[in-house]
Amino acid sequence: PDVIIEAQFDDNDTEHRQDHLQDVLTDDVKKLSLDAGEKGREIYFIFFQAKQDDEPKTNDPRLLPDKFLQRTAKVVYILEKKHSRAATGFIKLLADKNSELFKRCAMFSPVDHRVPRVYVSLADCPPDFVTRPEDYSNMLFICRIVDWKEDSNFATGQLAKSLGQAGEIEPETEGILTEYGVDFSDFPPEALECLPQSLPWVISPGEMAKRRDLR
User: Gene3D superfamilies, per this entry (predicted)?
Assistant: First the structure.
């Protein structure tokens, strides 16, 4: 029941000709109109497309309003690297077994998809990884990115250590702390000496008197 009429006209046409065209289209719509009582509500669309082939074209963005412009920039220098360049993930063999890269590298796939996949040397992998890669399909590793060339889809890195089976609390926790650069090593003796040595330790009454109890 819907009627759609599409028309095109050139900008070279005079205003009279355009007005005449609109009148003709309006008459056509009236002729095609069906009885609303029998067919229900009818919807009509009239599209006018103006050709601008004869008008001068310009690519100068300075002539466009600001709302039509997308600001762009280019990174020229990195002042400080905030990311630890460490990631938790899995290692697997390369898909192309006939390539020279297959004999030298493995693929590291990070758990965090914001980190690129990394080529790691087979020398960093476990000794039996090439012959038994399925044994390490669920093993978490820590890899540090050392380089990422502009013309490569993958970075290059070094395997730091094996964390353990994926899904276990300790390996997963250690991986998260390593990724964010948190030092979770044991406290040195100098730091432990600052703590009370006589245990169990209790707050003295004098200290309690000058403090606010928020327990």
Answer: 2.40.50.700
